[in-house]
Amino acid sequence: METLLIGPSVELLVAGLVADALLGDPEYRWHPVRRIGVSITAWENRLRRRGWEGRWGGILLCVLVAGQWLGLSLAALWILGRVHRILAILGHTFLVYSLLALRSLVDHVAAVGRAADVGDLDGARQAVARLVGRDVSGMDAAACRRAAVESLAENFTDGVLSPLFWYVLAGVPGLVLFKVASTLDSMVGYRTPAYLHFGWAGARWDDLMNLAPARLSVLFIAAAAVLEPGCDPRASLRRAWRDHSLVPGPNAGWSEAAVAGALRRRLVGPIYVQGQLVTDLWIGEPSDPPAGEPEDLRRALRLILIASSFAAAAAVAALASVLTKILSGSGVSW
After folding, report:
1. Residue 3's pLDDT band (cuts 50, 70, 90)
2. Which domain holds residue 156?
3. 223 with 260: CB under 8 angstroms?
4. Domain count within the chain
């Protein structure tokens, strides 16, 4: 296959990033991520009907969904390439654009701020409910903004840095496999009776694919803090190192703690799920105030936009130099 079809491309990555920035991520029935979700549900139902509800069933679910979407995406690009080179370019760019989520993330977070700033508490709660899986009915405006900052920080890794990372390393196959893992985790990676064992493989696969990007996120956030007025890059690095383990899971705490330190604000606080208090921990410097002011959310948005720009620039630079030389020198043909 030609490099253009499935391998990482500087030009097509830039095109996908520009499309995401300009167009956002519109919701429609045939969006690739939505279709991945539909296929996960279909395969899950088939496996459960056959009694495959334990860990081996979850492992098989990962294999089936990954194989389906890797095969479909590569076959589609091959067919488009056979018809015309331009169609292959458009198909590749469409996948990059569809599987990145920066503009969508920024739009959802900004919606929380807009509603909270005009006193529309119900609107702020509805907006933040699209970002977090916790009870929002008792949240005030400050809690809504704080939850939005937390989601922004965590999804910088999931929605921006990890897709870039896997695209640079493995092109369209890496990007598609990451998105499959991420969608599996969001749909079956729960510690509930129904998914404790069946969802184990999907959750662990997602953890593995986010392992390196989550730690790299600290560097990009700290670098962005240098440019954003009022932010503290040293505190960002310090809190990420000290507080990352306070957040459940091996990855989410790195970017959340880094943002808390950069903003000099505490994050998380009391969280209720189905009426039960699940945590009341705080991450950040104990002497810092809790996040929740309008400017806290605006600074967090600017911080993540700068960090995302750095990450995109690093991805483009990697493809333009080191990766290109490695691939051409080794004779690898994508």
Report:
1. very low
2. 3-330
3. no
4. 1
**What confidence tier does 149 reach under pLDDT thresholds 50, 70, 90?**
very high
Rounded distance, CA 134 to CA 334, Å?
Answer: 43
pLDDT score for 1: 42
Place of tokens 């334990």: 54
SS3 266: strand
Confidence bin at 333 (pLDDT 50/70/90): very low
Q: What DSSP string describes 2-18?
A: -HHHHS--HHHHHHHHH
The mean pLDDT of the chain is 93
pTM exceeds cut of 0.85: yes
Token pair belonging to 275: 């009426």
What residues contact residue 332 under an 8 Å CB cut-off, 6+ apart? 326
> Do 268 and 169 form a contact (C-beta atoms < 8 A)?
no
Buried b (16+ CB within 10 A) or exposed e, 6-16: bbbbbebbbbb
Nearest to 140 by CA among 297, 293, 277: 293
Distance between CA 291 and CA 104 in Å, rounded? 22
